[in-house]
Amino acid sequence: MKTVTTQAVPNKSSVGSGTAGGSISASFSKFRELGLLAFIVILSIGVQIRNHSFLTLENLNDIATNTAILSILAVGMMLVIITRGIDLSIGATLALSGMSAAQMVSHYPGLHPLAAIAIGVGIGLACGMLLGVLVAWVNILPIIATLGMMNVFRGMTYQVSGGKWVSAHQMPESFKQIATGSMFGVNNLIVIALLIYLVSYYFINYTKTGRRIYAVGSNPDSAKISGIHNEKILWLVYTIMGGLSGLAGVLWVSKYASAQGDTAVGYELSVIAACVLGGVSIAGGVGKISGIILGSVLLGILNNALPMINVSPFWQTFIQGAIIVTAVLINALVKRGIDRNNLMRRKI
Amino acid sequence: MEPRTIANEKPFSLKGYFLQWEWLLVVLLLAIFVMNANLSEYFLDYNNLRDATMGFLDKAFIVLPMVFIIMMGEIDISVASIVALTSVIMADLYSRGMPMEFAVVICLVVGAVCGWINGMLIVKFKELSSVIVTLSTMIIYRGIAYILLEDQAVGKFPSWFKFMGWGYVGTIPFILVAFVIFAAGFGFLLHKTAFGRRVYSIGNNATASHYSGVDVDRIKVWVFTLAGLMSAVTALFLTSRMGSTRPNIANGYELEVIAMVVLGGISTSGGKGRMIGAILAIFLIGFLRYGLGLVNVTAQTLLIILGLLLIFSVAIPQLKRRKGAARRL
Asked: Number of folded domains in chain B?
């Protein structure tokens, strides 16, 4: 695991870690992440020169807290993209579960915060399961299924709320504490995100089901022939995504202390951006936890730094899009380089 | 996947003819008419029907090329952003003193270029799906629109421009006339020309089409360019109807357009469907929306209905195919 933590599953057995090809693709992937890290460092230094309050402990803590929700969602999205899918509905799922949880706590202020989280996660899981059934068994293209359900969930959010907001004064202090409180001096959001990262790292690297997700994404046909139930894996992936969106919904509402009908509209795009920045391949089968952490952190820093160096907020959409395109194209070109190298080696 | 066989001539049967998806759409459309007529006694009035069509035909122009795109097994979710970008550029140029005629031409050119960029990216980077390419260009095009106009709105267009969305040719709305002409053109292109047949063959099997001498890449670029151009046409009509434009114009149009195409019986796995189905679906969704507006259904409930409609119209053929495959086993 230490030597070749690179590409999809099949590379491991076919290419020994000692051969030239293995180290080439390994170094490409390392290069990617080191490059991303270098970019983050250069960006931070650049922003620091323009605005001295950037690299303060307080601001760094802010960035980490703000990035936590994004990075939680990125874990789920990575799994979905690894199976060659995409989920556009997560912004709406997030809003629906956040709104439902907020409605519950505003009606029953005595509700334990954990119960509120359970409600959110439960609703998210239900949304995810439904999507999973549509994608896995009904065989609808992920983009169509999630585009349709995005609108259904968003519409339901307005229905649940009756078009009204749930604002800070309607929420009990204990609920707001979920996101603002801290454990061992670290903000809860960061703790939750770290926990999710640890669990999912173990899940996708060391469990059978986790490895099967990669297998289904790398080559669905051979996965099927190897006895993997592709449908079950797909369903599981969308369910996990839904559950994480539900959790993120509660955290979001608790953090911003307001639940609105249009909470997190378009947030799915940021999450997808974090994934492709982190080297998750849209073609499926490729993606690493360390990559999406870097991707989320880079996006988080950008979101925090752009206003600090007086970039107009109207540029942010464009910058986000440009980043996605650049990352996706670089991914594709690097992949081509690796493939060409592999071919050259085969000739000899 | 079972191989699809394509016979030279389909044997004609009356039952098969009436069991087609398009007839189902006709029945549904009639049902919606009956429902609307019951809800409002003025619904079936000629003037009312005419003005109702004017309200939803603006996005219909994108549906036409979207049929080609989905027919090829691709997707374009950047169309709404192209509408916004072209509309904003046109309005911005006009407000800076450019004559409206030039601004309209530039709007169309920009639309075509946006579509061409989509097509080139998809063709040159085969490892990227059209989903991710148009997803990223969707953000970029909308982003440029925001950079250009920020949070302002631009309006006060000349009166001939207003005619596009509000004017009549005789008693028929200009927008309807334009749509009929475009629809006939696209229908002809899809069903009566070699280009259209090639689109079908790409949808059925792109690799086989490539080896049969079909220039798959060129056709794809053309189709995406057409989608960009028609998005610009939609931008013209929409801007004319709204009277002003903002960067968040046409938000969510991609869903409606894709829903119309899919409801029209064009298969998302490519190679199946007809133009008439999509055209019926435009009127179906348009009048359904109008009727639900009559009974004060909120825009949010409409979202749910539209989403479910999209899901069901994809799910039903998929389940049918699954049942058919099970029977053959």
From this structure: 1
